[in-house]
Amino acid sequence: MHAFLFPGQGAQFPGMGKDLYEASSEAKELFHRANEILGFSITDIMFGEDAEALKQTQVTQPAIFLHSVILSSVMGDKFQPNAVAGHSLGEFSALVAAKALSFEDGLKLVHQRALAMQAACDEIPGTMAAVLGLEDSIIETICEETPGIVVAANYNCSGQLVISGEKNAIALACEAMKEAGAKRALPLPVGGAFHSPLMESAKTKLAAAIEATTIVSPICPVYQNVVAKGVVDTSEINKNLIAQLTAPVKWTQTVQQLLADGSTLFTEVGPGKVLQGLVKKIDRSAETASGTID
C-alpha cells in the first residue's frame, strides 16, 4: 500500500515552489489562479528571499498548501494513493489531492483558517513547546496537573510531543517535564497556541466556512488528525476538520494505523522531509520518499 503524506506549518523555505512553476505549465497556471483567489501575489513571497515574510501565518499556510497540492497535481501517474494523510494544515492539502475538495475551495479554506488562527493568537497570546524524551502518558498527566491551560497538541513520534497553551502554563509545564526526566522541554518560535482550547474563536469562524463548502467522497481514505484512522464519509470528514483546530494532531497514531492497515511506502508531497523523518522514527523499516514531478 502506498500512502501519501502532506506537511504542515514549519516546512516552508524561501524559493519554495519556484522549480514547479518553471518546470510545468499546469503548475504555472495553478499558481496564477492562486494569486487571483487570494487577492495578493503569494508567488512573489514564495519565490523570493524574504524568510520573515514567509513566516507570517496568513502566508505560510497557503504557501505550504499550494506547494503540496500543485506538486501532487503535476506528479501525474506517480500520484496513485491508497491512502493520504496530512499533518495539521497538511490535512487540507491531502483532501484536495484526494479530490474531496476543489483546489479553489481548499485554498479559500486554508486562507480563512490562517486568518482566523492569527486573529485568535492576537486575541489570547499563547505558545507551544517541544518535549523530547518523555513518555506521552507522563506529559499528559503533567499538563492536567499544571495550573492554567496547557494540553498535548502534536503527537509527532515516540519521544517527541508538542504541548500548547497559555505562556505561563507552558513555562510551568516545561519545568515539570524537565524534573520528570525530559531530555528537552523548550518553547517553540510560534505565534500562538495551536491545537488547544485557545483556538476556540478560530474554530467557530472556520466551522462556518467549512459548513458552507462542498466536500465530496475522496478517491481513497483520508487519515485525519483527530481520529487517526482512514475516513471516507463526507459528514465525518467535515466534523473532524472542524474539530482539528482545538484537538491534538495524532500523527504518531495516524502513522501506526497506516502501517497496521498495510502501508509500506510513504511519499511526502510538499516542501521538506519532516514527515519522512517522523515516519522513520515511528517505524525504521518503513520506506519513505519525496514526491517528484512526472
Keywords:
13 helices; Alpha-Beta Plaits; alpha/beta; 2 domains; 10 strands; globular; about 290 residues; Malonyl-Coenzyme A Acyl Carrier Protein, domain 2
Short recap of the structure:
The protein is of the alpha/beta class and 294 residues long.
Structure write-up:
- This protein has 2 domains: 2-122 and 197-290, 3-Layer(aba) Sandwich (Malonyl-Coenzyme A Acyl Carrier Protein, domain 2), CATH 3.40.366; 125-187, 2-Layer Sandwich (Alpha-Beta Plaits), CATH 3.30.70.
- Helix content is 48%, strand content 17%.
- The chain contains 13 helices and 10 strands.
- Strands 8-7-2-1-9-10 form a 6-stranded mixed β-sheet, with helices on both faces. Strands 4-5-3-6 form a 4-stranded antiparallel β-sheet.
- Helix 2 crosses helix 7 (103-123), helix 7 packs antiparallel against helix 10 and helix 10 runs antiparallel to helix 11 (234-243).
Q: What is the spatial order of strands in the main beta sheet?
A: 8-7-2-1-9-10
Q: What is the total number of structural domains? A: 2
Strand content: 15-25%
- Strand pairing plus helix content: what structural class? alpha/beta
Low-pLDDT segments, ≥5 res = none
Mean pLDDT: 94
Secondary structure layout:
Blueprint: E1 2-6, H1 18-23, H2 25-38, H3 42-47, H4 51-55, H5 57-74, E2 83-86, H6 90-97, H7 103-123, E3 126-132, H8 136-145, E4 150-157, E5 160-166, H9 167-179, E6 184-187, H10 200-211, E7 222-224, E8 229-231, H11 234-243, H12 251-260, E9 265-268, H13 274-282, E10 287-290
Parallel strand pairs: 1-2, 1-9, 2-7, 9-10
Antiparallel strand pairs: 3-5, 3-6, 4-5, 7-8
